[in-house]
Amino acid sequence: MAADRETQLLREKLCAAFCSFYKPGKNEDLTCLGYRAVAWFAAAGREIRFTAEQHRGRDSSGLLSGRLCPHCPFSANDCDYAAGVEGAPPCGGFILLNRALGNGRLSVDDIGKYELYLRMQGQVHDVAKAAREKGGEHVLGSADLHTHACYLIYGIMKPGEKERQVRPGSGHEEIFCLVSGRVVVRRDGLCIPLEAGQAFHLRGDESCMIENQDAAEAVYIISGGHGGTAVHH
Ligand code: SF4
User: Which of 41, 121, 165, 185 could lock 46 by a disulfide, CB 3.0 to 4.6 Å apart?
Assistant: First the structure.
């Protein structure tokens, strides 16, 4: 495939030629951030020179080690340069980026843009996968988001599955929205059907039970937050 060929080419032009960490055949699926950044800029059409050119301008090692290395999977345990070992060289990607900065083909703003791209990647959460792994429901909340202002619950109910409770709890409010399938909402001896695209709102200790009486899977999301007048927990 073309993507595999490009990866192989980059390994030869970048890793094999410039990186002292590179060991052919060893854990090649895991790439360092220097490699990923070079691949990102090259894919965006930016000129990265895979040749032994002179570094003419300012050294930007401090900028790169401060803004890129902290996001690198190798920085914690596997990179002597990031660990500050004296004389340890950075990876090949780092060297080429530093040259591109020094020779004016990349700017500080370009590095900032790539850093923003990394942050955006880190803000994406695979809630559907997590819900399946946890048996049907995943809460995207303070553990991942580092805020208590809001949260989201992604839920999947198998055909015939019952007794899924929705209850915001004291100080919270939630909106339940059925994304796909059909369910029944039970509350205080009453029962109403809910179809995909329909939503309802609960406050505090109000609660209901959801049942999927259908032959197909049902998927829902619950958006939650703190109520305006109640005590926070
Ligand atoms: S110098 Fe080390 S930590 Fe920094 S990007 Fe390269 S491999 Fe990762």
Answer: 41
Q: Where in the chain is the domain with CATH 2.60.120.10?
A: 127-226
Structure tokens at 54: 């002179």
Q: Which residue from 81, 97, 111 has its CB within 8 A of the most atoms of ligand 1, so it is best to mutate? A: 81
Instruction: Tell me the CA–centroid distance for residue 32 and ligand 1, in Å.
Output: 6
pLDDT values of the chain reduced to their tens digit, one per residue, 233 residues: 566 777 888 888 888 888 888 887 766 678 899 999 999 999 999 998 888 877 778 899 999 999 999 999 999 888 999 999 999 999 999 999 999 999 999 999 999 999 999 999 989 999 999 999 999 999 999 999 999 899 999 999 999 999 899 999 999 999 999 999 999 999 999 999 999 999 999 999 999 999 999 999 999 999 999 876 544 44
CATH for 127-226 (3.10.320.10, 2.60.120.10, 3.40.630.30, 1.20.120.910) = 2.60.120.10
pTM for the full predicted model: 0.76
For ligand 1, pick from 20, 91, 97 the residue to mutate: most ligand atoms within 8 Å of CB. Answer: 91
Residues with C-beta less than 6 Å from any ligand 1 atom: 32-34, 68-69, 72, 74-75, 79, 81-82, 90-91, 94
